[in-house]
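## Example pair
The file below holds two records. Each record gives the amino-acid sequence first, followed by its structure token line.
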Amino acid sequence: MKEIDLKDKKILYYLDLDARLSFSQIGKKVGLPKSVVSYRVSNLKEKQIITNFYTLINSYKLGYELYRIHISYQYASPQIKREIIDYFVNYKNSCTVHEVEGRFDLAVTIYVKDISEFHTFWIQTLSKYRDYFKDLIFSIYFIESTFRYEFLFDKKIQGERKQYDLFKDKKIVSIDILDRQILEALTTNARLPTSDIARKLGSTAVTVNTRIKKLIKIGVIEGFRTSIDFTKIGYRWYKVDMVLRDYNKANQIISYLKTNPNFVGIDRGVGYVDLEVEFYLKSVDQIYSIMNDLANKFPDSIRNYTYISVIKTHKYSLLPPSD
């Protein structure tokens, strides 16, 4: 585990709020000179605590739905598991591929614009690997909410904790080739200067900057974030899936969870459980403490729960495939 101080944690916090903030802007927020912020960020990258800067793209605006598949294995050798992972990674419409532990072994999300295309892919998948799938769970995501990393601070942060909402609506937008190229450049490096993007694409910085502002305005770009390997500083990502006895308590449970600084996300979908909530925690014991606390706070409201935690991420692609 890497040791970092409060200043580093604050830098991580503000870089995740907006990865395109200048080091001068971050310095004003954390009380450090620009040169010191630059040095600290370089150090965080060298320690592989910061692994990337990425652009959060609302795929729903581009006409895609997001299907989630959870799989638990049976009769699968290490070689077969590796083959199945590579199969999903190489599928052009896969968004994320996570090796997990807990209730399931593999968690995959797929971009779906054409259900018949997905059906063809899934028939092919089952014909190859059905015997190795013990359990399969499908659901469709409709709302994905993320919350600020308050746990990085020593005290509660004032203001709204919610950071982003990605949700499906009917306002699908169109983008052209230049828009797509700009998104491709920013997806792999959200801090890439507009002048560098313009030079790469044979455009001008003014045009690129205008296009980025347009993509933000129409909701295709939701924000610019930082990929942080929290395992390097003692945290792991956990998702708790809850089935409720009293669904009318769902919003009250969510409101209560917002007071927990380690609560970082919630997914709402159709086809699986009632609540899917995400945390960064130091140990699995904290899940039991959180759930016991919820059981005391909301007696007889939660029927049961399971959890998963990411062991390894094999794919994380936030830009859907081009048509």
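Second record, same layout:
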Amino acid sequence: MKFNKWTLSLVGIGAVSLASAVRADEAVKLVPLNTLVPSTTISGYVDTAVQYNLGNYSSGANVPNGTSPNKIDAFSLNDVDIALDKPEDATPWAAGYHIDLNYGTDAVGVTGNGTQASTAAGSANAAIRQGYLVLRTPAGNGIDWKFGVQDDIIGYEGNTDGGNPNYTRSIGYSVEPTTLLGLIGSYKISDAVTVQGGLADATSPNAGTALVPNAPTTSDKTFAAAVAFTAPDSFGWAKGASLNLGVLLNLDKGGQDNYYAGLTLPTPWTPLKLGAALDVVSVANEYSGASVPFTGPFHNPHNDSGWIAGLYGNIQATDKLSFNLRGEYFDLTGSPTTAGPVYGSPLATDGKGEEFTATLQYNLWANVTSRVEFRWDHVDEGRYFGSVPLTTIPGTSDAFLLAANLIYTF
């Protein structure tokens, strides 16, 4: 069972489904193509863009969280995603599968040999975004299990580019793991409440950095849990509003812990939808895979934490025209996520700042999402944008980005 978070409240962005805190990988799928295998469908999208970064950026320069250094002043193939589905039927012991193959600068998932390429977007060699069995057990209303590699179950934004309100990712998304490799169950208590939970291999977006110098061991595991509350029709204009809560806890401290809360809210003015998100990340001093405690200039003596708060707005002006706004404030001074000595700041993303993104979407062609976006990032303290570690390039406290984005969905 898959639920989309963004489209629950921002109806004009894509197809509507039950709110939850999992990745929005099914939001933009249209009528799928039939295959020769009975009950199996194929769908997907092709996502391309061109962007211009105002200012002089060099190779290795620091760019705002949620943007990619591989897209600076360039055309980009963000993602080619092809999905195969065999949905569960209505029988008590139903079974099915889902496969997502992706390639591009936004690709996430595992490598061709089935090991996690990374938990961050733009992972090298991330060929398999999702590949899992869907199994139902007839307990109560029925528990639907996903066994395999899958999008993680927290976050306001998902791995499907067209299912998100903006072209660039949020800062909150950038500190969340993107992928879970394990067993996750979903249970619908009622039309208003759905819960998810399970166990996966340890998630560690920072593995290999000075903060988390070693990859998690095979025994390190992550506990994942989420609950979604959806307002019923009796709530009047607020029907469909949702509250999503979720956690990813590394049981053996094999990386970082994530805590998430998200709210989506219709308004009395039907064209306007609102949203809010809070991400908290906690980084442990060490985990069981490390032979010795952290030492040296990047020693992390205790469990540090950082947080990001975001607000979203969508105005669906017409069937084809919409305006999507996003504003965030981050304080990552206690939980840096990338290594690299910088002037006055020990780690690259250590600092405080804000970002504001405005996206104009007009769907001129059939099945095509067309976007123009402007983004402004500002750092209050920490590493400046455009700066390069171990160089004299100072950077600037403000970063500006213009982009055009086209996504064809089939």
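Notes on the second record: Residues 6-9 form the longest helix (4 residues). The chain has one domain: 6-409.
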